[in-house]
Amino acid sequence: MKVGLFIPCYIDQFYPQVGIATYQLLKKLGCDVDYPENQTCCGQPMANSGFSPLTGGCDKNFVANFDAYDYIVAPSGSCVLHIKEHLKDDKNPEKAQKIRNNIYELTEFLVDILKVEHLSSNFPYKVGFHTSCHGQRGLHLSSMTERVLPQFSKPEQLLQKVKGLQLSYPERKDECCGFGGTFCVFEEAVSVKMGKDRIEEHQKNEVDYITAGDVSCLMHLEGILKRQGSKVKAIHLAEILNHE
Asked: What InterPro entries does the annotation carry (predicted)?
C-alpha cells in the first residue's frame, strides 16, 4: 500500500523527531511511505478560531499533495479529525471525499488497517498514558468512561506490546489536559491549572515519561513540567513504538 505521511506544521517545526519516528515505524511495518514536501498547515488553527472560510488555500494544497495515496497517516488526532470533518475542494469534491475517507491517525492505522499483532519495540520505563480529547471523542480511538460500554483503547493496545514498558494511568483517565488549541492562549490560567492537575496525577504514579498520541497535548504538559523542574519527560507514542 502507498502511504502519504502527513506531518502537522507544529511537529515539523518543533518536534521533527516525532515525524521521523512515524516514518521509520511505518517503514518497519512494511509500508511504502512517501512524504509530500509541499504540504503545509491543514487549516485547523484558523477553523477553530472561527475563520473557516480562510482555509480554502490549505484545503486546495492538501488535496493536491495527498490525492495520489491509498492512505494518509499522521501522528496527530486533532489534525486528522479536522481533515476528516472539514476538508473540501469545490473543484475536486471527489478527491477531497476520498482523502477524508482514507486519512488515519497513526494508532488507528496500525490497529485497524495494518492489524499489528507484534512490535519489536523496547522501552524499559514507567510511562503514564494521557488520553487526548480529539482522538478519543472525535476519532473514537478509545472508549469514554462516562458511557456504559465495553472499554477499549487502540493506543494502549499498542503500548502493551512494547517490551519492558510499564503503563500507568491517572486517576481521572480521560480528562482534558487543558491545551485545547487557542484555548490555552485565551484562557491561560484555566489551561495551566488543568495541565497541572493532569501532571500531579501522573507524578503520584512516579512515572518516568508521559505519552500521548497528540504532540499538542504533550507540548502543553512538557512546558509545565519544565517550569516545575520535573524529571518527568514528555514523549510521543510514535517514539516509543519505534524505540528498540
From this structure: Cys_rich_dom
**For residue 20, what pLDDT is reported?**
98
**Which pLDDT score is estimated for 48?**
78
148-149-153-157 Cα dihedral, nearest 10 degrees: 130
- Asked if 116 and 110 count as a contact pair (C-beta separation under 8 A), the reply is yes
**Residues in contact with 50: Cβ distance below 8 Å, sequence separation at least 6, in sequence order:** none
Apex CA 105: angle with CA 102 and CA 109, to 5°? 70
Indicate the residue among 60, 90, 113 that finishes a domain: 113
User: Are 136 and 218 part of one and the same domain?
Assistant: yes
Domain assignment of residue 118, yes or no: no
Note whether 223 and 92 are within 8 A (CB): no
- Against a cut of 0.85, is the pTM above it? yes
Burial of 17 (0-12, 13-18, 19+ CB in 10 A): middle
Question: What are 57's three cell numbers?
Answer: 488555500
Domain that holds residue 53: 2-113
DSSP E strand boundaries for the chain: 2-5, 32-34, 71-74, 103-105, 126-129, 166-168, 209-212, 233-236
Measured between alpha carbons, how far is 210 from 193 in angstroms, rounded to an integer? 17
Interatomic CA distance for residues 174 and 133, integer angstroms: 8
Tell me what pLDDT residue 67 has.
95
